Input
Amino acid sequence: MIQRTCIRFVVSFCSLLAAGQAWSQCEDQFPLSNTEGAGTVMCPCFVEGEEAGVVLDVPAEDYPIEIIRIGVAWGSVLGDTPNTIQSALHVYENGLPNPGARLASLEGPVFIDGFVNEFNLEERGGVRIESGPFTVTMEFMDTNAEMLTAASMVHDGDGCQPGKNVVKAIPGGWSDACALGLSGDWVMHVIYRPVNCGDEEPGEGKEPAAELFIRGDDNGDGNVDLSDPIFSLTHQFAGGPAAGCMESMDSNDDGQLNITDSIFTLTHLFAGGPALPAPYPDCGAMTGGASLGCETSSESCN
Output
């Protein structure tokens, strides 16, 4: 179900939002646009099948991104034209001079006069962009050239930035709109999300997974028995191997590995001594305090 919410600016803002949950871990970014102002100048200057739009880019570290909404300012001199269906919104893989392959299209968008109409691509899975710049356009269904009261795309009338505004003319193909005499930037924007915000490496915003072990299970076989203090003493005094998780050999959890750990385990097993500190008798992670470290989880806990 589609619900419509509108917020008024100089040229008002109309958002077509699909009800439903957000599907990405990443946060929506602020509208990406070439203009900071509202639209002030209508351009009824197109014929059927022509396209107009913007070239956009984001910081290189944000790519790849997913475009989830596209906004297009639409207006007329009188502000009272009926709602209008246009051919499509398109997203292309490159910028000027040749936007290249068409990545996605939204057919039949309906425009309301006097609004920045925003169209939701989220329920379609968004449009993935691997690198920039990229181009977003609207394709006209009807001719409005020289129809002074017709509704059309809007620009800000505040100077045209070369390389950031496009027209696909018939005939003529792709051109920089500034070179064709456009006096402002098309009022269009996209809302996007970075794709990889949940893939940080440890130490870059995401904690590494905790290693698991059983305290006193020195040889990592999943059991605490006589073989474990023997393993520990062999390591300490006869050059035997160490545990992959050294913390498992610290039976009394005092932050040191010495003979008292083996004595502590033997006393618990055979003389009714206190149980080993956690994690024991099941797998668990270190809980703080002095530690011998745990480079890898015990094999019995994997």
